[in-house]
């Protein structure tokens, strides 16, 4: 198992297996959403309320298709030495482009 710090998380990589991003989020006192770390600047950024609800909304088939598309895009994005897109951009693209009835060609 290997770990490294990314802009917002601790990435944990398992040998011959998946990687997991662990992110600390602190509840904002006077506004909706969370404070999330920005390790590049040494500060905290306000999250955009509703992101999680959009990605986890019904129907289940759409949620699963988006999750698979995001995982594929993130794996592709890590192939170059310098990733072209950040995780947030990949998730935003999936929200905009993946629609009900689409699939990734993988089995359920």
Can you write the helix and strand succession as a string? EEEEEEHHH
In terms of DSSP E residues, the strand content is 15-25%
Reported for the largest beta sheet, the result is: 3 strands, antiparallel
Distance between the termini: 28 Å
Q: Can you list the strand order of the major beta sheet?
A: 1-2-3
Structure class = alpha+beta
- The Cα radius of gyration reads 15 Å
What does this molecule look like?
This protein is an alpha+beta fold and 108 residues long. The chain is 31% helix and 21% strand. The chain contains three helices and six strands, in the order E-E-E-E-E-E-H-H-H. It has helices spanning 51-55, 60-77, 87-97; strands at 2-5, 10-13, 19-22, 26-27, 34-38, 43-46. Strands 1-2-3 form a three-stranded antiparallel sheet, with no helix packed on it. Strand 5 (34-38) and strand 6 (43-46) form a beta hairpin. It is globular and about 40 Å long. The two termini are 28 Å apart. The model has no long low-confidence stretch (mean pLDDT 80).
